[in-house]
Amino acid sequence: MAKDLVIIDSCVLIKAFRKDRLANDDLKEIVNQTAYSVITQLELLIGANTPIKKAAVNKIFESYYGIPLSPAISAKAIEIMQTYVTGQQIISVPDCLIAATSIITGYPLLTYNKKDFDFIEGVKFYK
User: Fold this and answer.
1) What string of DSSP letters covers 6-55?
2) Which domains does the chain have, with CATH numbers?
3) How many angstroms separate the Cα of 87 from the Cα of each of 97, 98, 125?
4) SS3 66
5) Is the separation of the CB atoms in 100 and 71 below 8 Å?
6) Fewest C-beta in 10 Å: which of 25, 67, 88, 121?
């Protein structure tokens, strides 16, 4: 596995698809360091409702390093869910898996939704 990778959240890629300058600049900054959780690919494929959009999503992921779910990531995601989901706090399953991927690999997370992750001990952010 490459050193100094940065895990990208789906929100970054969605903004980049929409030609957002910040997102595109951030992705250029980490070119050849970009990694993603398989759950991020699944999240983007949900919104790709045409063959052209699916092809565009798949093309993007060809140039990034995919991090598959592993027993360690799965166990960490379960731990996060048990620790942080309370009557007043909710974390989505995809965000739980992305956070676990970041924690287990030690790679920082590039996201524009820090509030979804900043309460989870061990998640480090890029920027």
Assistant:
1) EEEPHHHHHHHHTT-HHHHHHHHHTTT-EEEEHHHHHHHHHH--SHHHHH
2) 6-116 (3.40.50.1010)
3) 20, 22, 26
4) strand
5) no
6) 88
Nearby residues of 5 by Cβ (< 8 Å), 6 or more positions away: 33, 34, 35, 65, 105, 107
- State pTM to two decimals: 0.90
Task: Read off the pLDDT of residues 51-92 as tens digits, 9 standing for 90 and up.
Answer: 998 998 888 899 899 999 999 999 999 999 999 988 777 899
How far apart CA 117 and CA 98 sit, in angstroms, is 9
Structure tokens at 47: 């919104």
Cα–Cα separations (whole angstroms), residue 50 to 18, 54, 62, 71: 16, 6, 19, 33
